[in-house]
Amino acid sequence: MEYRKIKDEDKDGTSVTDDIESLGGKPLSANIAASERSRWMRKTTVTFALTLLTSSQAILIVWSKRAGKYEYSVTTANFMVETLKCALSLLALVRIWRNEGVTEDTRLSTTFDEVSVYPIPAALYLVKNLLQYYIFAYVDAPGYQILKNLNIISTGVLYRIILKKKLSEIQWAAFVLLCAGCTTAQLNSNSDHVLQTPFQGWIMAIVMALLSGFAGVYTEAIMKKRPSRNINVQNFWLYVFGMVFNAVAILIQDFDAVMNKGFFHGYSFITVLMILNHALSGIAVSMVMKYADNIVKVYSTSVAMLLTAVVSVFLFGFHLSLAFFLGSTVVSVSVYLHSVGKLQW
Amino acid sequence: MEYRKIKDEDKDGTSVTDDIESLGGKPLSANIAASERSRWMRKTTVTFALTLLTSSQAILIVWSKRAGKYEYSVTTANFMVETLKCALSLLALVRIWRNEGVTEDTRLSTTFDEVSVYPIPAALYLVKNLLQYYIFAYVDAPGYQILKNLNIISTGVLYRIILKKKLSEIQWAAFVLLCAGCTTAQLNSNSDHVLQTPFQGWIMAIVMALLSGFAGVYTEAIMKKRPSRNINVQNFWLYVFGMVFNAVAILIQDFDAVMNKGFFHGYSFITVLMILNHALSGIAVSMVMKYADNIVKVYSTSVAMLLTAVVSVFLFGFHLSLAFFLGSTVVSVSVYLHSVGKLQW
């Protein structure tokens, strides 16, 4: 019904009349144009929200590290993030029910067919997070940050294969540049160590990139499968399974710590801020998946990484390296080529 | 007459019939196609020649440095390079005169109008080379190598402004990437020093990049002004003025050394090899200017820089850095985008 290919939505999004207040008397084409414009606005808004939330997320992490080592269990914090997202989705739904009543698209009850796919992204992320502990046997933390850029390529490839959406040749070139640019921006004097990563380390990094890319692409497929379905219902079910799988992670990794020191041990004001931020960016990711796509998400988080570094200069007195400038230039050209590639092909 | 925009020459160069042996009986269009094909072949050949000669040039420099410091006067070597190029052009001309006789396009005698522009590139290079000694007051040698990549941008800008040739938007993006990629490939742990370059250093680096770009663009204008004019005549006059200006450089910089130790002091087998290589790559540059353009030259020398590094791994046991891989990736994408940009626009 409401669903159309995102790629098509954009084309006229900018060339539309500014007058969207008096739609009633307009012919059908103006209505369509206005609705495309509002879709474009929504897509842009969620993309900006995701970029800003992701940047502030990284800054909060730096801040919390400066304040000392993590004292809390990361798994309990992840569980709290899922719980908060679930609660927020439910709150939004209650508001909709009050204003518009319960419809086929906003009711919470579901069928097995609809809900059966929702655990898959959460399960993939759980496996990926567990693997994360083992990869450090082969790679150090800065090396892992570098290898994580493989996510960009895996997302592009799986987006093409699974969602069967085409990128133009220029957009593929832009995607390779995005990966190279992000990695360049993160280079430091020790980065060359990553080239000595043993074979097992590379395999694990590639498997993790594929798991992460697959989870992202699968989430997009879920969110777009039934476009008219209210996003808060979809989020609610997605996050319920997130809670379940994070509960499993607590049992596997932090059972003793939680039993001995309590669920909320080591929580501080900054921990609460981080949980709030992660919850909001999680919801922003869902919205980008529904109203835009994985490619927009990858660009958004990459630009956020650069923004974080620039903001850190002012906040923490970090120095920007020449590699950062070069990487940022390449990422900027990539963003430009991605949009030019879309218009031309 | 023979002259057409290089941009147009390419388009059908690859889609032409393979049968170029029996041209006589073919209609005119086949003749044109065959002549375009031969132009494309010539352009490709000179580009490859320049790339290979430039790579081996850098390898000879590394080799000569390994063998010890320069014992000879660089200015006398440069003079010998110009003399050799002049002699080679004359030799080629004599062969042409014997085979085809002297024509309007192959005769050596010239008018003031034709020859008056030939000293300008040599003069520009002289000023640039003299400035080179002063910039080291502000930048160290590796920093200077990094700043030299500004040549890429200045060549592109001057090519557009002076020769009035258009690059597509994608080709401009590719050019920015070429500059960023080459710089990334050269990054090392001390590269960040270049960011502390004082204002005067930046100004000098920009002025030198403009001089170098202007000399290149001016040479192209000279070579293409009269397309039917034999390239060896054009080279002869270009190199005669090269000899004159390098003689001036000997007087300014190495007069005492030459007077006391002799003109050829410190020359070794490798010095002779380097002079031979520089002469041949100089002629290749002229040919690229006549049959291709400055953009091709910049791409050619950039790819040569990457080839040199790869070959040095085998020859001298150098290690390739992660930055090198990233930079090479960006340069490769840039080469791809440059050709795609040309076809599409």
Structure write-up:
The structure is a homodimer of 345-residue chains. Chain A has 345 residues and is mainly alpha-helical. Helix content of chain A is 74%, strand content 0%. Chain A is built from 14 helices and no strands. Chain A is globular and about 60 Å long. Residues 1-24 of chain A have low confidence and may be disordered.
Give the secondary structure arrangement, pairings included:
The structure is a homodimer of 345-residue chains.
Chain A: H1 6-11, H2 28-66, H3 74-100, H4 112-115, H5 119-135, H6 141-147, H7 150-162, H8 169-185, H9 199-225, H10 231-253, H11 255-261, H12 269-291, H13 294-316, H14 322-344
Helix pairs in contact in A: 2-12, 2-13, 3-10, 3-12, 5-9, 5-10, 7-8, 7-9, 8-14, 9-12, 13-14
Specify the structural class of chain A. Answer: mainly alpha
Distance between the termini of chain A: 26 Å
How would you name the oligomeric state of the polypeptide chains in this document?
homodimer
Which spans of chain A have pLDDT < 50 for at least 5 consecutive residues?
Answer: 1-24
As a whole number of angstroms, the C-alpha radius of gyration of chain A is 21 Å
How many helical elements of chain A? 14
The largest contact between protein chains, plus residue counts on each side, is: A-B, 29 and 30 residues
Number of strands of chain A: 0
Q: What is the H-and-E element order of chain A?
A: HHHHHHHHHHHHHH
GO molecular function (chains A, B): pyrimidine nucleotide-sugar transmembrane transporter activity
Pfam families (chains A, B): Nuc_sug_transp
Transmembrane segments (chains A, B): 45-64, 76-97, 170-187, 199-223, 235-252, 264-286, 298-316
InterPro entries (chains A, B): EmrE-like, Nuc_sug_transpt
